[in-house]
Design a protein that fits this description.
This protein is mainly α and about 150 residues long. Helix content is about 60%, strand content about 0%.
């Protein structure tokens, strides 16, 4: 997470929607828009924006299937491959949902970095590198939103 993100939340500027990441807002909430964005391929610039806004560089490296040293090359791609776009966009949906559930990215970061018994003692962020892991994290967030989980 960048200092700008922390400062934005500290000053009460609105969070929500992962500001600063150029993905169609509907792609984070609507399945059809998600599929459309994945098929089109996210621009490499979205990878850089994700690292700048939410951090988790090592996770992003794993999601796009590169090395940390070569990540800057991904930033310049016109469009990511479909599998890379899907993994990154699905992860952005998790971040967006956590941001909404915890009323801000700072609190979402705290939660994502905390080992949870409901996830077998894993930190939610550590599960975000696989589809099934992201599904488990989203399910946990859903339970929190509905008061089913302390």
């Amino acid at each position: 997470m960048t200092q700008e993100t922390v400062a934005r939340e500290a000053t009460g500027q609105p969070a929500g929607g992962l500001r600063g990441i150029d993905v169609p807002p509907a792609a984070l909430a609507d399945r059809s828009a998600f599929v459309e964005a994945v098929r089109a391929g996210l621009p490499g610039e979205v990878v850089k924006q994700t690292v700048d806004v939410v951090g988790y560089r090592d996770l992003v490296v794993r999601l796009v299937g590169t090395t940390s040293a070569n990540l800057h090359r991904v930033y310049r791609r016109k469009a990511l491959a479909q599998a890379q776009s899907e993994a990154l966009l699905d992860t952005l949906r998790v971040f967006s949902r956590a941001e909404q559930a915890f009323a801000g990215l700072v609190r979402a970061h705290e939660w994502l970095g905390t080992a949870l018994p409901a996830l077998g003692g894993e930190r939610p962020i550590d599960l975000c590198d696989t589809f099934e892991g992201r599904r488990q994290v989203r399910d946990t967030l859903r339970r929190i939103e509905h008061g089913e989980f302390p």
